[in-house]
Amino acid sequence: MEPIKHEEGIFYMEKDGRRIAEITYAPAGDGTINANHTYVSDELRGGGVAGQLLDALADYAREKNLKILPSCSYVVAKFSRGSKYDDVNALAK
């Protein structure tokens, strides 16, 4: 498995110089970031890569004391399935 890399606004994996998976975010104000896009290449789908990227984003949010606003359909679905991310979910009650 390729390592997860981080640059401002994106966590991603590369292979042979091409991006094969990513989750992107943007500042959303008031200590929140908007998780707005997730992509995993066909070769990695079904292998839990999107979850690893979301975990990396959640860890980043915890480190920076941020909340995540889920607008990407993948993140919305993951946030609705349990409490693993409640501490960083901007919409959690």
Outline:
The protein is α+β, with helices and mostly antiparallel strands and 93 residues long. It has helices spanning 49-63, 73-80, and strands spanning 5-7, 10-15, 18-29, 32-40, 67-70. It has a five-stranded mixed sheet with strand order 1-2-3-4-5.
Question: Would you write up a description of this structure?
Answer:
Keywords: Transferase. One of its GO terms (molecular function) is transferase activity. This is GNAT family acetyltransferase. InterPro entries: Acyl_CoA_acyltransferase, Gcn5-rel_NAT, GNAT_YJDJ. The chain has 93 residues and is of the alpha+beta class. It has one domain (5-76): Aminopeptidase (3-Layer(aba) Sandwich). 25% of the residues lie in helices and 37% in strands. It is built from two helices and five strands; from the N terminus they run ββββαβα. It has helices at 49-63, 73-80; strands spanning 5-7, 10-15, 18-29, 32-40, 67-70. The chain has a five-stranded mixed sheet. Helix 1 links the parallel strand 4 and strand 5.
